[in-house]
Amino acid sequence: MLEVMNLSKHFGKVRAVDGISFSVGAGEIFGLLGANGAGKTTTLRTLATMLKPTSGTARIAGYDIVERPDDVRPNIGLLFGGDTGLYDRLTAQENIVYFAELNGVDAATAVTRTKELARAFSFTEYLNTQAGKLSKGTRQKVAFSRSIVHNPAVMLFDEPTVGLDVTAKSDVMDFILKCRSEGKCIVLSDHTLSVVERLCDRVGIMKSGVLLGVGTIPELCEQYQCSNLEEVFFKLAGERNVE
Amino acid sequence: MWSKFIGIVLRKEIKDMLRDKRTIITGIILPIILYPIMFGIMGKAVSSMEEEVRTDTTIAIKAEVAADEEIMSVLRDEVFAGSEGIKLIGSDDPVGSLKNEEVKLYLDVSRDPDSGVLEMNLYYDENKMDSTNSQGYVSSLINGYNNQTLHKRLADMGIDIGSLYPVTLSVESISAIAGDRDSVGSGGIYLSMVLPMMLVIFISTGSMAAAVDMFAGEKERKTFEPLLTTRAGRLPVLLGKFIATNFFGIATTAMMLIGLIIGYSLYPQMLTMGMGEVTLKLPALVLGLVVLLVLLLTMIFSGVHVAISTWSRTVKEASSYSTFVMMAGMLPALGTMYMQGGDIKPWMMCVPVLNVIGSLKMVLAGILRYDMIIIAIAASAVFLAVVLAFTLNLFKKESVMFRM
User: Fold this and answer.
1) pLDDT at position B182 over 60
2) DSSP characters for B122-165?
3) Partner A contacted by B114 (CB < 8 A)
């Protein structure tokens, strides 16, 4: 479903991503773990075709991100945490339908799907409320709905739970697990170990643009002789600015 | 598929912007009410100034002159006869009275002992509008009295005043005899000085707020990232937003013109500041070409604002640079303000902004040069294409779109 092959992205002399490779299958959640500046967001932006790789490539749903970015885009759902990126003067429904239509979903189907997502995320009563008047948690739910309204095969989530309260965080994590059960391929970047431990089937630990270790959490613990993911992380990345 | 995506983006942007109170106020309400209010205030100010001059013009005269009943009688009963608003008061310090705004004018009067002619010096304060206006009014009364008396005296002597002039002179515009252009009226000349400038101001500002919000605002809100990873792709997004920006630019210009028409219908004399009527009638083709030219200029300004907003990181940054562009766009309007339609040179048609101003001035002067207007349209189209290509190039650059 998603295969990253020796992917690099440099900004001048800065090697933000430096020759990383990994693959993620359908119904799998892959977690990119790393401190700030490790290259997680750049990796996701490159996979989302926003940035062009300096070298290497990736295939998403069978399409090469360098050669066929236009075919890649309808197959991905993208969400950046923290700042939800909604249009404040549009209602929740208008925000979601707009992105559905831009992904080729017809207007009637977009509305139906938006209502389904609102029910699933429990924000039906806010569908006609302008996004600027919504709480942070509800905004994140709307942003989630927007990123998956066109039913993409691959989902790229960058710190999806950042800034959310406990309830909203739990809702988001439940939803990500639901997506996995529906066979979605999910790449998730986060530096909250508890989120990664709960959600991810496999984890890749990044530092300075390099992928230092990849595997399931038990595999990584065994490989690096650690008792938990936190120890593995400190051993590999040598960083302590994770939660 | 492209047109569908462009339509989706366009519809969303218009809906989004129309919900923004700032857009409604600055792009629609302000342009439509500006001229009626401006004309109304100016009309009231002008008529109240005229009224004040006629009804309340106090003139200081030296105390000893005021005591001279013979001089006062000439002034009251002959020079200012029938002018009820003029009050003559004696003063020991008439200059001080004028300085202290106790009077509007100081009239120094003395009698030539040999000829018996009254010699007058009229003093006014050039820094005060009411004193300046009163000076004009009183001067015209004195000159009128002089002319009237001169005519009467010559007539009493049996001399026809017409026979005293060696030549006579009548001044007419060429439109009266050439037949190749309509007379635009004296108001048309005034209008050709101010209308192009007003139009450029509104065209340059109309699309600014929309462009800043749709591009720099989108960056600031971080909505560009999900937007540019949709199936639509970059070009339809750019075109949809560009058309929406133009929509607001054109809407603002249209609202300004509607406001101008409303202002004109309420206060007709104010459109030309009382400098006469506009008698020009334009052929439909000329009108159409000028409208096309104005639309192209709107699109050029939109394109420039879009380019700036695309390049800028924040709304604040984009607003600052766009304001500079707006002011730079006004320079050709100010530089050519006192040019008449006949002064416009062909090379000016190749310079954006200047070509629209020049064409408008020519048309308002009744000079219908199709060749020059078409050159202006072609030059504007080329410039627009360059601006759009530049903006598209910016839009494709990840270092510009996702500055890190």
Assistant:
1) no
2) EEE-TT-HHHHHHHHHHHHHHHHHHHHHHHHHHHHTT--GGGG-
3) no
